[in-house]
């Protein structure tokens, strides 16, 4: 039996990354339209079907190539991070319509810092820019466990406000923070996302298995769902199914991919033909054709 190399999927779908990129600021990326939202599919582990996707920020620099968040988020100031969050929110709301047109009504999620709940008018932005289709399933905001418990009362208040406009909260990286169950009981959340450090080897590591099982049971007791992130092996995937985990994502299932590749994947699954390109008019022979950078 051969062992699948999870990184082969990343190499297949993603362009080469720069080995030692220079420091690129978020503001420069936004100003120059270098910022992209990539999507990582989320799979329903019980029904074995595509259920949603997480939107992840990438910078496509003209010289450095595609940059991962680790190269541009550390040390970013609050204002720039809020600009990035707003951009991610509005872009993801717009992109939902493209995915729906491909035949998939997916619930999309984005990562946001906890202070965005206070500093950004998220409810107003969603009310203005959300899809008007009646089947829109809403949006998930993923906030890490350690951030959300710093001011659980404020987070709870904002979460209740957002729920009325179709936005729910997911607790990200669960198990890696320091929250207590009594704190989480006060927070209306729709998902618990199991931190990948516990998902890895959960089929063979008794401690990781116990943490995953506890998180899954906790989510269900609160009437929420459990999502395992960072799934890299089939044995871990099978163990999570046995534990009753609801959803999963990771390179074993599918890596993060550009919007165009994700859209192509959706069309392939739905056997929907790609739209035919429109003919391009010939340039005026008198004036030189415009160059596209």
Topology:
Layout (H helix, E strand, L loop, with lengths): L6 H7 L12 H6 L3 E10 L4 E13 L3 E3 L10 H24 L5 E5 L4 H4 L2 H8 L9 E6 H4 L3 H12 L3 E8 L6 H4 L6 E4 L1 H4 L6 H16 L3 E4 L5 H10 L3 E2 L8 E2 H12 L23
Parallel strand pairs: 2-4, 4-5, 5-6, 6-7, 7-8, 8-9
Antiparallel strand pairs: 1-2, 1-9, 1-10, 2-3
- The total count of helices amounts to 12
Mean pLDDT, to the nearest integer, reads 83
What percent strand? 15-25%
Sheet with the most strands: spatial strand order: 1-2-4-5-6-7-8-9
Could you give the order of the helices and strands?
Answer: HHEEEHEHHEHHEHEHHEHEEH
Q: How many E-type strands? A: 10
End-to-end Cα distance: 48 Å
CATH superfamily: EAL domain
* Overall shape: globular
Helical proportion, percent range: 25-40%
**Which structural class do you get from the secondary structure elements?**
alpha/beta
Largest sheet: 8 strands, mixed, barrel
The top level CATH class name: Alpha Beta
User: CATH architecture, please?
Assistant: Alpha-Beta Barrel
**Domain module count:** 1
Could you tell me the radius of gyration in angstroms? 20 Å
């Amino acid at each position: 039996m051969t062992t699948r190399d999870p990184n082969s999927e990343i190499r297949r779908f993603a362009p080469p990354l720069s080995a030692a990129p220079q420091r690129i600021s978020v503001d420069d990326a936004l100003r120059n339209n270098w910022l992209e939202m990539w999507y990582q599919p989320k799979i329903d582990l019980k029904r074995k079907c595509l259920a949603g996707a997480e939107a992840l920020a990438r910078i496509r620099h003209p010289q450095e190539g595609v940059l991962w968040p680790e190269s541009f988020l550390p040390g970013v100031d609050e204002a720039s991070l809020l600009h990035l969050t707003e951009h991610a929110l509005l872009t993801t709301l717009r992109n939902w319509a493209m995915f729906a047109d491909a035949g998939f009504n997916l619930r999309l999620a984005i990562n946001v810092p906890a202070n965005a709940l206070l500093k950004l008018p998220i409810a107003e932005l969603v009310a203005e820019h959300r899809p008007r289709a009646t089947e829109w399933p809403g949006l998930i905001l993923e906030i890490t466990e350690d951030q959300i418990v710093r001011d659980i009362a404020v987070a709870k208040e904002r979460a209740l406000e957002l729920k009325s406009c179709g936005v729910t909260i997911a607790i990200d990286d669960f198990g890696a923070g320091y929250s207590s169950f009594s704190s989480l009981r006060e927070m209306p959340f729709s998902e618990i996302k199991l931190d990948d450090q516990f998902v890895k080897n959960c089929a063979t590591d008794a401690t990781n298995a116990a943490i995953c099982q506890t998180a899954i049971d906790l989510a269900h007791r609160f009437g929420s769902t459990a999502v395992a992130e960072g799934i890299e092996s089939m044995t871990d995937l099978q163990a999570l199914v046995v534990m009753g985990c609801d959803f999963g994502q990771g390179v074993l299932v599918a890596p993060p991919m550009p919007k165009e590749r994700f859209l192509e994947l959706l069309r392939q699954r739905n056997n929907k033909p790609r739209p035919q390109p429109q003919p391009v008019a010939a340039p005026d022979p008198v004036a030189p054709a415009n160059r596209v950078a």
